[in-house]
Design a protein that fits this description.
- With about 140 residues, the protein is mostly helical.
- About 75% of the residues lie in helices and about 5% in strands.
- It has helices spanning about 1-20, 35-60, 60-70, 85, 90-115, 115-135, and strands at about 25-30, 140.
- It has a two-stranded parallel sheet with strand order 1-2.
- α5 packs antiparallel against α6.
- The N and C termini lie far apart (about 40 Å).
């Protein structure tokens, strides 16, 4: 059931995103090339982490999901991501969305450690919502 719901949500997002691509009104954000490459690499890793979290949740390995969330997405991961260096080039809204994602990942980690899958999934939705909000508002080339 969880997999079906996730598939439906992802399909819905992809379809709505495809139609929005025709009228891309996102704000262009320019970074120095090296910082941009690092940031895009971080975001690709964020997707890998979310996938790993979903795998751990599906196998009831809540502690592993919590650990990877905190150490690769949460507040603990911000310095390794170079967040301070990247932030100086970001509009305020982009900074807020990024900080929101990191805080949400730390909240997810705490909820996951508590062992209630339903609460953990609710908290994970806050992480992905922050990602979606940022990607809907901003773009880089």
């Amino acid at each position: 059931m969880r997999t079906s719901l996730l598939a439906i949500l992802l399909l819905s997002f992809v379809l709505s995103y495809a139609s929005a691509a025709e009228q891309d009104t996102r704000e262009q954000v320019n970074f120095p090339k090296k910082i941009q490459q690092h940031m895009l690499s971080n975001m690709r890793d964020h997707l890998v982490v979310i996938n790993e979290i979903l795998i751990y949740l599906s196998t009831d390995e809540m502690d592993k999901a919590a650990d990877i969330a905190e150490n690769r997405l949460g507040m603990s991961a911000m310095s390794s991501h170079g967040a301070g260096e990247q932030a100086q080039y970001m509009p305020d809204g982009m900074k807020k969305a990024g900080s929101s994602m990191h805080r949400a990942a730390s909240r997810f980690a705490r909820k996951s450690e508590e062992g209630d899958p339903a609460e953990a999934y609710k908290a994970l939705q806050e992480v992905t919502s922050a990602c979606i909000a940022c990607h809907a508002a901003y773009k880089v080339n």
